[in-house]
Amino acid sequence: MAAPNKHENVECSLNTDNGAAPHSPIVNKPTCIIVLGMAGSGKTSFVQRLTHHLHAKKIPPYVINLDPAVLDVPFPANIDIRDTVNYKEVMKHYSLGPNGGIVTSLNLFATRFDQVMNFIESKSKECTYVVLDTPGQIEVFTWSASGTIITEALASSFPTVIVYVLDTPRSVNPVTFMSNMLYACSILYKTKLPFLIVMNKIDIISHSFAQEWMTDFEAFQNALEHETSYVSNLTRSMSLVLDEFYMTIKSVGVSATTGEGFDEFLSKIDDATVEYDKEYRPMYEKLRSEKTHKEEAEKQKQRESFYKDHFGGDIPVKSDLLESVSTRVVLEQPTEEGSDEEELTQNTDDANTLEEESFRRYLDARRQQQSKKVIKKDSQS
Ligand SMILES: Nc1nc2c(ncn2[C@@H]2O[C@H](COP(=O)(O)OP(=O)(O)O)[C@@H](O)[C@H]2O)c(=O)[nH]1
Ligand SMILES: [Mg+2]
């Protein structure tokens, strides 16, 4: 059942006189923070804590919940997907299982994302951060058309940062850690956006081991010593590949439960915003223009093949058309020198004659029809 519309229109104002974190350097553009991570890594708890933290700093964020299946949203969401799509109804209507229901709900929501963009745009001057919580299962967002549509829509208009939440206590095993990192790496290369790894739940275990593994190749290899499975061999080879990824990636340890690490998180988000403006925006704009060109070329190709199939020739280009028009004009010009007036009178006369002829033909046809009707009536009576 869709939740009541209780979260909408949460006041969103920016007060700069409170020693708050520095505003993102792109004037009048909020930074969009897309929160991704494995199910149970603590995305929703993280968004809840971040919202709380930002409210305390008097920089309330604009918060969007994109998880249609969540029972309770524990933060004040300005936009809640559950107000737009009823996940249970979608499951029933399309005879889907829970995962299909979530994917379809997100797809339906993505078709209205232009409205969400308008809402964000309208809050641009007041809000510094837009935070988006995503569905529990990461693949619903990262490997679906709707996830791509939403990410690209945001990234094409606002500085956008991907925040990957890592369940630190569950990553103490080097093989699990590696799988998580491979997933993070695939998202980074897919989205091509500034990326921040948030090592969550540091109230349970410190994230120092993970940061050491990311910076010290030997330390990670040593941790793998105890693993003898085939997967550990694969992990050993993969860690060489991930070395480059680790060099560029930023990470921060936080606890959504205690609030530890959130100031550092915000300062890294501001760095990522600058990074977006310097590196990613030009790249995104280039990619977008390339995409438009490609689509245009594809359309032209389709037009040409349609023309060939139906008319057996190439589409006349503008210059051809001009040529044919000018040829006609030349042919219609009087061979002998004559005034424009004469030409006009001649043309008008021709038109009148044609009109008379056509009217006469019409009258004949009508007469014939009438006489046929009369004959028919006579024969019936
Ligand atoms: N100890 C601890 N538990 C956390 C933390 N963050 C989340 N959790 C717990 O992890 C579980 C999953 O969290 P949730 O936010 O629902 O994860 P999501 O599926 O990624 O949205 C919940 O039981 C949370 O209470 C944290 O920082 N510390
Ligand atoms: Mg969640």
Could you name the key traits of this structure?
about 375 residues, alpha/beta, about 10% strand, binds guanosine-5'-diphosphate, hydrolase, EC 3.6.5.-, nucleus
Helices, strands, pairings?
Elements: E1 31-37, H1 43-56, E2 62-65, E3 79-80, H2 81-84, H3 87-93, H4 98-110, H5 113-122, E4 129-133, H6 138-142, H7 145-157, E5 160-167, H8 174-191, E6 195-200, H9 208-215, H10 217-224, H11 230-248, E7 250-253, H12 262-311, H13 318-332, H14 340-380
Bound molecules: guanosine-5'-diphosphate and magnesium ion.
Say how many strands there are.
Answer: 7
Shape field: elongated
How far the N terminus sits from the C terminus, by CA atoms, comes to 73 Å
Measured as a percent range, the helix fraction is: 55-70%
Strand order of the largest sheet: 3-2-4-1-5-6-7
Q: Low-confidence stretches at least 5 residues in length (pLDDT < 50)?
A: 1-25, 319-341
- Strand fraction band? 5-15%
Number of helices: 14
Structural class, by secondary structure, is alpha/beta
Task: List each distinct ligand once.
Answer: guanosine-5'-diphosphate, magnesium ion
